[in-house]
Design goal:
This protein is about 35% helix and about 15% strand. It is an alpha/beta fold. The chain has two domains: about 120 residues, Aspartate Aminotransferase, domain 1; about 220 residues, Type I PLP-dependent aspartate aminotransferase-like (Major domain) (Aspartate Aminotransferase, domain 2). The strands form three sheets. A seven-stranded mixed beta sheet has the order 2-8-7-6-5-3-4, with helices on both faces. Strand 5, helix 6 and strand 6 form a beta-alpha-beta unit. Helix 2 runs antiparallel to helix 8, helix 3 packs parallel to helix 8 and helix 4 packs across helix 7. The N and C termini lie far apart (about 45 Å). The mean pLDDT is about 95. The structure holds pyridoxal-5'-phosphate. Pyridoxal-5'-phosphate (PLP) binds next to helix 4.
Length: about 350
Amino acid sequence: MSKFWSDVVHKLTPYVPGEQPKLNNLVKLNTNENPYGPSPQVIKALKLEATDSLRLYPDPNSDALKAAIAQTYQLNANQVFVGNGSDEVLAHVFQALLKHDKPLFFPDITYSFYPVYCGLYGIEYKTIPLSENFEIEVEDYRQANGGIIFPNPNAPTGIPLPLIEIERLLKRNTESVVVIDEAYVDFGTESAVGLINQYPNLLVTHTLSKARSLAGLRVGYAVGSIELIEALVRVKDSFNSYPIDRFASAGAVAAMQDVEYFDKTRNQVITTRNALIQDLTNLGFETLPSGANFIFTKHQTHDAVDLTSKLREKNIIVRHFQSPSRIAPYLRITIGTDAQSKLLIDALTQILRN
Ligand SMILES: Cc1ncc(COP(=O)(O)O)c(C=O)c1O
């Protein structure tokens, strides 16, 4: 607390990202990064970008990147917005599209950055409880609202919501913006991007941090109607003209274009996930269905805090959320390589034996 702080700063409860330990030799399964490096085409593009041209500002409109994203989904470039990670894109979404008289709706168990943005921008919100099975029930969102946002698949549960349910929601909810945060969609969840030409109030956000292995580059995007995108551009141009630097642009374009590498690595993650779920079941874990590059799993008898700290003693880090109490028995485990899965299963086998 300081007398020099603006009022709003006193009231902020900032987001706490997963730990990024400065230790080597860790099996790091706590922040949903991709275990595989980015496409070799990305590395090539980044090297080519390391030239004298860095003295010049990048393109404020990121036209090359928007074109690559538009081409991926058969959209027009003016239906695409890009930012410094999807967290920045989401921040602009909250400010530009989700601050209204009526409250914003999101699930009670979801990405914990959403209430943080509400605090930052003074947005009123209401949380809608997930079902007993931790599922989003779109019926429960059938009330007057100032906007709706949730991830699909949801985080930290990993549970995918079928596209037909999203369309059901969109058919009924025409008076406010519906944002589907598809950070993890490429690991086996149906995308809503194909619906944006039908529903002018639908905005879909994506990141290059997960399925395109570029968490370190910080690139995310939103696709939606021209009307929604224009609001985001207005906020961005009142905040930072150059959120995508020259490296980010070059690397992200190459990543979007290397579809073969993208498909190969995401399919490998899905295969590893399915095998890991089976191995965990054999050890007495119950895992929620996952359409993501992570799983949410609990042991029938062993305490999650204890398991987390014992895994840590063996240099394996997973994520545990203390609250709300409903999710306290669960561990959120990022899918790594097959070799990392084996280390995890060997460690858990030892821990559970003692
Ligand atoms: C649901 C969800 N949305 C968005 C993000 C933000 O990703 P990034 O800022 O790396 O694009 C995350 C990151 O973990 C996430 O879990």
